[in-house]
Each structure stands twice: as C-alpha cells, then as structure tokens.
Amino acid sequence: MADRVCVGAIAGAFGVAGEVRLKSFCANPDDIASYGALYTEDGDRSFTVTISRPVKNGLAARLSGIATKEQADALRGIRLMADRARMPDLPEDEFYHADLIGLEVRDTGGALLGHVRAVQEFGAGDMLEVHGPGLKTTVLLPFTREAVPTVDIAAGRIVADPPEGLFE
Known about the structure:
By secondary structure, the protein is mainly beta.
C-alpha cells in the first residue's frame, strides 16, 4: 500500500439520491476529486469523485457506481486511497502521514524510543503516536520542530527531543 496515500473517508449517505458525505484529509478539501480514481484500502473497488457542495463536517459528493442511499450507506467508514504518483510533491518540511507511520524514533543521544504507530490531529497540531520498548501505552509526541528536529524518511528514522519525562 506504499504506492497509495489515504486522502479521505466516507462518512455515510448524504440525502436519498446516492450522494455520500465525504471527509477529505487533503490540505485543500476539494483536491480529493483531482487525484483520479480513489481506491478502497483493500484495492477491490475504485471510484471517481465529483464534489457537489460543502456540507457540515465534510463534502457532499457523488461516487461513480453509487446511485442509491443504501449503496452510499454501505460505504460508511471506507477509507479512500489515491495513487502516490498523482499526489503533489511536498515542500521540504512537510510529510504525508503515511510516510511517518512505522518510522523508528530515537532520542538525540541515539537511544531507541519506539516506532510511529499513527499520526493524530486533535486541533492543536499533529501528534506522533509512538509505541516502544518498556512503554505500557503509546506516547503522544508533539510533531513540532522543537520536539522532532529531524525527520529522515529515506533512513526510516526520526530524531526526537521530547519534553522532559514524556517517555518515562
């Protein structure tokens, strides 16, 4: 799945004519319709997206092959993936969440802290969910320049300078 990036999710039907409520994970929500065919995570189905209008908590959209409310409801919770080759290149200090998941996290002294399990957004900025040896639960590391001074995707590594006591 490394050749695809999650760009959105279907929140269910919108209305009775087969439209869906679409949550876009793109910086510009409307861009979700510009990446060509979008695939389910398992790759079994693909859809072209036509955005109808913005709605509360997302976009009303038509998906190719979906014509009824029942068909739209059956897609609730499906995450939509775009081919990475169709995604725009990012500036030097920006990353796709999919590229961060699985990276090794080491402190500034080189000690292994864990691996990135997920990237969370709670409204105040991204947090890296890190799980590692000796941790009973995952740790939420702020994804800021101060706490994460180095991200080396090619080497599969993040260097972190976490706040005091975070990994204890």
